[in-house]
Amino acid sequence: MPKYMSYTLRNFRSIPQISKLPNDFVFDIEVVGHVLPFKVNSYVINELIDWDRYEDDPIFTLTFPRKEMLKPHHYKKIASLLKRGASKDEIKNAANEIRFQLNPHPAGQLKNVPKFKGKELKGIQHKYRETVLFFPSQGQTCHAYCSFCFRWPQFVGLNELKFAMKETELLIDYLKAHPDVTDVLFTGGDPLIMKTKVLERYIRPLLEADLPNLKTIRIGTKALGFWPYRFLTDDDADELLRLFEDIVKSGKHLAFMAHFNHPRELETEAVKKAVERILNTGAVIRTQSPVMKNINDNPEIWADMWKKQVSMNMIPYYMFIARDTGAQHYFGLPLAKAYEIFRGAYKSVSGIARTVRGPSMSAEPGKIQVSGISEINGEKVFVLNFLQGRNPDWVMRPFFAKYNEDAMWITDLEPAFEDRFFFEEELEEILTGNGL
Ligand SMILES: *Cc1c(COP(=O)(O)O)cnc(C)c1O
Ligand code: SF4
């Protein structure tokens, strides 16, 4: 039975495959791992990474820090501290200073915390009318960490930035007071890092409350990619599947939102069995991933990934554009490139796999899809669309931005044919609290 062995900065040198890598390379992991989140496990090491070509291996890059992920001056700073044997505190302070420069809460995440009965609900984000995000306080870590993760402040000890909440009671009250909400999305970190007994404490009361407006329970997780044994051989795997069954039996839709970044993650026996077991509970698995340089930046990878997902009975759901945070200079792609990758992949698969939406930016005003690159009256433009908007009425009203080959985010774009994007004035009102 595979045992979960986890490695961080403290013990990664004891990974057998690491001891065979060049010293410089290992030192780089140590330098960068002081700043970016770093945690990997025995499944990722033994079943996903191809160690014969680790330098180009997408899963290695996904989970191991490497030199190029820090800007050269940041790298130098930490490297020199380590080389001269600086104190732990000195290194930690320098690392924190760098982290704060890496935009730890992009796209105004901290602004989506609702107030309820005079209290700030720190563990809840409510941005789009139908869906509430819930961050159970014990689900704020993962089975391994993605080096591109935008939730990384939660893992590196910047606790004042951490969203968390214990009280399911408050969540239930909130749902009762907001009858428009149909979906609760359990997210993190990874909520499936929790023991089933703990997860149950959040979910069972929600089922027992029998809220007529609550139709869908979503669980956002990377456990299928990083630790499929969660559903197979972990002590409480069977209990977890029973909980899933009970959600379905209660008449709610259980939407299992699986995070996969590369087709490799779909190829092991363990993941195939885990997917089958989850589907047998009546849950539906939908998949999502950001598109990232050095991991999955070509259409063949995406087409392969979507096809494999469909053949395993999963539904491709979202392609995201990498957010401006952490190692963005290493992972980020221009919007134009992300769009070409999406289109290249989309046009090569059958309609069954074209359930995927994207490429999409989760930005301050909403989820904005790059729907096309076009020419209107001789002007080259991006065609954009809201897939989700802070005001639901913004959804699917095409709007245009001047084409810009290098733009990586909505904030890099200028409106075409008008002075402001159609939503900007209303967005300001919403953000200053006068709207909605
Ligand atoms: C993506 C997202 C949702 C869910 O959007 P769907 O399109 O319904 O999947 C909800 N809340 C936030 C903050 C999101 O980013
Ligand atoms: S699984 Fe999700 S939350 Fe966890 S490190 Fe990866 S991107 Fe971040």
Which properties best describe this structure?
alpha/beta, about 20% strand, eleven-stranded mixed sheet, binds iron/sulfur cluster, about 425 residues, two-stranded antiparallel sheet, binds pyridoxal-5'-phosphate
Describe this structure in words.
This protein is α/β, with parallel strands linked by helices and 436 residues long. A hairpin with a 2-residue loop joins strand 13 and strand 14. The longest helix has 14 residues, at 88-101. The chain has helices spanning 16-19, 23-33, 42-48, 58-63, 72-83, 88-101, 168-177, 196-208, 223-226, 237-249, 269-280, 299-311, 328-331, 335-346, 424-431; strands at 6-7, 40-41, 115-116, 119-120, 124-128, 131-134, 183-186, 216-221, 253-259, 284-291, 315-321, 357-362, 366-376, 379-389, 399-402. It has a domain at 6-99. It binds pyridoxal-5'-phosphate and iron/sulfur cluster (SF4).
